[in-house]
Amino acid sequence: MIMATTAVASAEPSAELVAAAKKEGTLTTIALPHDWCGYGDVIAGFKAKYGLSVNELNPNAGSGDEIEAIKANKGNSGPQAPDVIDVGLSFGPAAKKDGLIQPYKVSTWDSIPDSAKDAEGYWYGDYYGVLALGINTDIVKDAPKSFKDLKDPKYANSVAMPGDPRTGNSSLMSVYTAGMSTGAKTAEEAAKAGVDFFKEIKKSGNLVAVNGSAQGMAQGTTPILMDWDYNVLAMRDKLAGNPPVEVVVPSDSVVAGVYVQAISAFAPHPNAAKLWMEYLYSDEGQIGWLKGYCHPIRFNDLAKNNKIPADILAKLPPAAAYEKAHFPTLEDQATAKKVIGEAWPGVMSGQ
What we know:
The chain is α+β, with helices and mostly antiparallel strands. Helices cover 39% and strands 15% of the residues.
């Protein structure tokens, strides 16, 4: 078995690892729908580059399902046992604590931000979205560039979130991000400031009291929608100019939500799993995710070194907008959820 890398050597996997993975012949993935983050092309690229087959389990599974699949197949080396997982941030530390994943540091390890990886290599951020604004420019002629702009009276009856922040993560993070725009230094401060921000724009009439959506944005009932950038970018493409949609990363607050990769502690094909990680964290794999509008965790490193094709950059908000992305910790998110959950009824009742 190939041992985990402990230092960055090069951006290419070792010949030894490639040979060991090819000997295993197969990689088993789970919960990777082809239309999510460009995964269809990423999987095809991996197969073409290394000649391994990929056994794809339950593409539409959720993070919890992935963890359960590891637990259920601890002693199973057959095709139902996943080698690798792609899960929400909270599932990484929990899986490590439960002994369900194993450490491995890819050769590009140093270019993954410390705030988005386990120091021992058990899990590491793979891609993220940042809170953005999708704007119907047929209706909103002067697009807002910041959260502060959203207070302007000219955006009356225009601003919406996808849902209730007590039950939806993107809406929860919309409130948190708005709070961070005020200069808040802690999660508690950001949550309280975000609640106050939404109280203000509700009282002024700028906040629309319905759930925002692609349909609402297109029809004009919610012409300014807060959501993850990859969601509003996909909405923009689907609407295909009818109406035209501008996607803005607010200049005064850039907050990211990250997913993480890990290798099962019981992976039947551990070397294929490590080679998969090397591919995902190579320039080629990272750009594959970016084509699907999910910002790869090494995005700033790729942008700084001019590794991103111009045609891809042209479809995205400016790269500079992502340089100051803030990645809330699990503790930050838990704090925000508690504070916002308790205060939100007062926002909606106008108290």
